[in-house]
Amino acid sequence: MFDLSFTLNDIFAFIWPVIPFIGVAALLVFVVIFLVLMERKVLAWLTIRKGPNRVGPGGWLQTFADAIKLLFKEDIMSSETNKILFTLAPIVVFAPVMVIYGLMPFTEHLVAINLAVGLFLVFALSSLTTVGIVLAGWSSNNKYSLLGGMRSAAQAISYEIPLVIAVLSIAVLAGSLNMIDIVKAQGGGIFTWNMWPAFIGFIVLFICCIAEVNRIPFDLPEAESELVSGYNTEYSGMKFALFFLAEYAAMFIISVLIVTLFLGGYTSPLGFYLTQIPALIHIEQAFWLVAKVYTIIFTIIWIRATLPRLRADQLMAFSWKFLLPMALGNLVIVSVIKFLGQL
Amino acid sequence: MYIQGYWILVAFIGFSVAFACAALVMSWIVQPKAPGKFKEKTYECGMQPFGDSRIQFDVKYYLYALLFLIFDIEAVFLFPWAVVYNKLGLFALVEALIFIGILVIGLVYAWKKDALKWE
What we know:
The complex is a heterodimer. Chain A is mainly alpha-helical. Helix content of chain A is 67%, strand content 0%. Chain A has one domain. The longest helix of chain A has 32 residues, at 143-174. Chain B has helices at 3-30, 60-88, 90-112. By secondary structure, chain B is mostly helical.
């Protein structure tokens, strides 16, 4: 009747489809826990403070303590809120970020969803996060939240345009929207990176990415001196934790995006791999990616410690009057370079 | 080959939503529940909240939204062009330059009309 003798292969075939999901979830949570600690420590060093140093050796367990605290906090909901939308908003903000983790190539084979339109989907999903933020701002029925939500929407749509146009130049260079193809097109070491032909695009994308994740100097949606905490003022407990998780997860994945599109992704900057054994090459690819990504993340934290916040009108003018013409010019330059290269 | 991938995408969206819901449900089970009259008030820096926040909103936000629509659709049109650019050669380059040129004229027009001014 039933054959109960499992072989190892049967068990493997059963577990195999689940692995990408568990892997992405574990990666996201691990990355965020480490990133929050890293940001607090680096900021502390940059401003000559000690940073978290009480929980665990050297403060290493601080984020775990914070996460457990948030889990056990009471979830306070004001009687004025729209309860359904208020609960829905953190889910709408968080879920797209997690799907983007699945779309990113961490090594040549370590990509959960490998699609022909991968790059396009990344931007389709990242725009959804804005909907969640507006939803949170409006449903809170709080003036600070509403202002924060609307500002966030205005900012996100303004910086989305130069961002997407800067990315178009990458599609021209690689001739594909598949993330693996884009990385492979720049696999020949540091001089084949897309950063060189599309240098203006690289700068534009970097600035826009910082704006898209609402970080200093573009953190007007949560300007604490005027808007308390912006769109998440009314949130507490786990719902707040989801916003927090999504914000830091987005910061990491946007650095992966910058590295993948402009800095050669998981490939070695030397043009060849130091290890020649197939199994080790994967580890080396992951190493290069992590090294590049944390360089970008460190720069983003450094910028936070250095620059003041922009004014709202400066913020909008900078995007529409400077970044957008730059991005369009970059697209023209790159397509001309590509055309001349084919002759 | 790629059609297979879209089911994984749908599964991933489902999994991500489930992950967020699971976090909320887990917290809902373990959290203390002690509602109070003052906890239910909207936060307004300790003052008595006055009025509702469902108010009329400044038209400038909609102006930007309109501009966003125009340029985002431009970007969507340019994506297929960018993918096949290698195969089309000079024709694709000239076409795209004309297309981008028209949009630059649109941007200059909006700029001169002060539609990009934030007050």
